[in-house]
Specification:
By secondary structure, this protein is mainly α. 68% of the residues lie in helices and 0% in strands. It is built from six helices and no strands. Helix 1 packs antiparallel against helix 3 and helix 4 runs antiparallel to helix 6. The chain is elongated, with a radius of gyration of 19 Å. The relative contact order is 0.15.
């Protein structure tokens, strides 16, 4: 059970879970259920990467954890609001094959997935900070006192 508190293992697992949606997003002929399943697996991967960040931040002070959590929440909202990829590109529509998704659609999807990952990390960090604050002893920062 201690292996899941290892940030490197969580981040490595999360990166591999992002791979199916990265492959399937490029092909428009994939059935809808397959794309939705791949997206859900990607969200689990993003949650694992966010958990790695949370586990890493538990070794820091509460103020640092709160600051990073708030910065991630605000940064995620900015990423959601500023999608730099246009929804259509008229010059590409005429000759682009229908079986392959247009690059700007895929880029926009990745941008939204990035925003979701940032939001998940921020929410996870602040929720963990809240739980640690409510259940832990006063003044505990997550560091071991036996050093």
């Amino acid at each position: 059970m201690q292996a899941w508190t290892n940030p490197a293992l969580l981040a490595r697992t999360g990166r591999w879970l992002l791979l199916p949606v990265a492959v399937l997003d490029w092909f428009a002929l994939a059935p809808q259920a397959v794309v939705v399943t791949a997206f859900l697996v990607a969200v689990v991967g993003l949650a694992a990467v966010a958990a790695a960040l949370v586990v890493r931040m538990l070794r820091r002070s509460r103020a640092a954890m709160a600051g990073v959590g708030i910065a991630l929440l605000l940064g995620g909202l900015v990423v959601f609001g500023l999608d730099p990829f246009p929804s259509t590109f008229p010059l590409v529509d005429a000759w682009w094959p229908d079986a392959v998704t247009q690059p700007q659609v895929v880029g926009s999807a990745y941008w939204m997935l990035l925003g979701l990952g940032i939001e998940l990390a921020g929410v996870g960090m602040l929720a963990t900070l809240l739980v640690v604050s409510l259940t832990g002893p006063a003044g505990a920062t997550g560091r071991r006192s036996g050093r």
